Amino acid sequence: MKKVIVGITGNEKEMPPMSGLTYVAVARDLAEGIKAAGGLPVVIPIGTPDLAKDYVDMIDKLILSGGQHVSPHFYGEKQMVDSDEYSLARDEFELALIAEALKQKKPIFAVCRGMQLLNVALGGSLEQEVRDHWQEELEGTSHGLQVRPNSRVSQLFGQGSQINSFHRQGIKRLAPDLVVTARDPRDGTIEAVEGRGSMPILGVQWHPEFLCKDCQSNQQLFDYLVHQL
């Protein structure tokens, strides 16, 4: 049986720091989660928007991975956070990938920054700075989930399921085509969204790839992406 090809958006990272050598980078655990689910992961490096159609043509499903802040330019606001954690080239390229995936009706699974960018692409906006949502340790969890009943997320996670937290921005105005399916019960921060109706879209604010080795529910997210979304 032919494997499902899942494209994962890549970032760029200078290694070693200040060496002038730039590598295409993606969390290995994202690819491992797809392979464990029986899919075939393919990393998509940052490119120009005109390449989006060719990339989406060759994949079955798309993962929008984590990384930098999304430029407020794309949701009509001025940048309020003084940081170098922005990449206009990445934003422009991944917005083109999203538009093409939607056009071709190919499923999108969005992680952390990916969920934020997807919300912006569909007409939403972001909180440029959220507090108390960055845990100190890479391993482990930070808080629980308040899950919407009868949602895709509720099929995988129960009320109070523990997740990690590595974000300094979040959804402010929800895009019209999205539905909130999980929140942080501490402050109401949106932690998961899905597409309205039959739109094959699922987004999570946490990083399931860091948890899936030790948590069945987070690995089932990848199973769901490969086999059902």
Provide the fold topology.
Elements: E1 5-9, E2 11-14, E3 22-25, H1 28-36, E4 40-44, H2 52-58, E5 61-64, H3 88-103, E6 108-111, H4 113-121, E7 126-127, E8 143-144, E9 146-147, E10 162-163, E11 170-171, E12 178-183, E13 190-195, E14 201-204, H5 216-227
Helix pairs in contact: 2-3
InterPro entries: Class_I_gatase-like (IPR029062), Peptidase_C26 (IPR011697), PuuD-like (IPR044668)
GO molecular function, one term: gamma-glutamyl-gamma-aminobutyrate hydrolase activity
Protein name: Gamma-glutamyl hydrolase
Structural commentary:
The chain is an alpha/beta fold and 229 residues long. It has a single domain (5-227), classed as 3-Layer(aba) Sandwich (Rossmann fold). Helices cover 23% and strands 23% of the residues. It is built from 5 helices and 14 strands. Strands 4-1-5-6-14-13-12-9 form an 8-stranded mixed sheet, with helices on both faces. A two-stranded antiparallel ribbon has the order 2-3.
